[in-house]
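REQUEST ID: PR-0412
SUBMITTED BY: lab tech R.K.
PRIORITY: routine
TASK: structure prediction, single protein chain
INPUT:
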Amino acid sequence: MGGVRFRGASFWVVYRRREYGPFDYQWSADLHGFELVYAGVKFGEICSDEEMFADLKGSGLPRRVAEVACIVLASIFRSIRMGLGRHARRELVRQEVVRFAGEQYSRIVEEA
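STATUS: complete
OUTPUT:
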């Protein structure tokens, strides 16, 4: 079973009993979007609610991992723009991952 494990703002995608990550984000210089980061390297950006660019081809990640990571990052961006608190943000992430990736990714673990 897959899922997502968070530690602070960073997260790992669990796929076929293996963890991939860390995935993270940082605000863009203009504070209107996110820069998307995998293992410390920028791989894309979210410019607005309608515009996202991501390229993980050279990372060697399974396609499903890249898809789930992008769903999580887009959901985090959306939840922050909506002004949701931490718990509501995680619930939105869980709902969106289930909606777009399936019930097998519904397990969200939060570490201190």
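NOTES: Strands lie at 3-7, 10-15, 18-27, 34-38, 41-48, 51-54, 107-111.
REVIEWED BY: pending
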